[in-house]
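Example record

One chain of 231 residues, shown exactly as stored in the release files.
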Amino acid sequence: MVTAGKVFKIAESTSLPSVASKLKGFKTEEDYEEGDYKFTLVTEVMNLSARENTVGGVYSHDYVLHIFHRGKIVPLPKTVEAMFNFAQHKKQLFLTVVEKKRIANFIANKLSEIIFEKLGGIVEARISPETLKGFHTKNPEDTKITFFDNVDIPNVDKLSLYGPDLVGTTLFDEYSKHGDLWYIVARAREYGYVVGVTRDASVTIFNLTDKNKYLEYVTKEIVPLILEFSR
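Predicted structure tokens for this chain:
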């Protein structure tokens, strides 16, 4: 019942038609050999589609795991497939990868290499602590968890609060004075989703499995938070 993903900014000058043309038909194959084991590892962009202001598809990537089997370590091919979506918001292009943070970062870099032939064409997005706090105050009674970093108290790295009545506590205001809001979990009342958001635009919806609805929510509710920080 959990769907995770991350939003990125496009740092280089490009357009959605150009992105689509670079990704269309992309496929590479790599021969892998280890002892008696031989595999062909495939990386490809599948199900590419272009709609008004968006280009989306599935990034598919083969890699090799090593597992213990019958007294020895053997290689085993595995495929990860992640939905992605490029979207135009005002004059800025964004990429959302629907996968956990580590894999989303990996795929964002790979898409940057395909589209721009280098790393750095796609970079991390940012949400300011003040904007994230605004997300909290929009749903005050529905905030369940908050984390603070950049804490100025010696030998204290992070602070956290858990509970249904965070907005009514003086601790929230006190922690806000000593650190920056890094992570928040709140119920988005309009949608009924329980959403976790970090300042690096990692977004987890804990009670949703529909990836298309995930993308719709992120596009409508999270991207504006990033744009606010970018102004």
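Notes: The CA atoms of residues 127 and 225 lie 6 Å apart.
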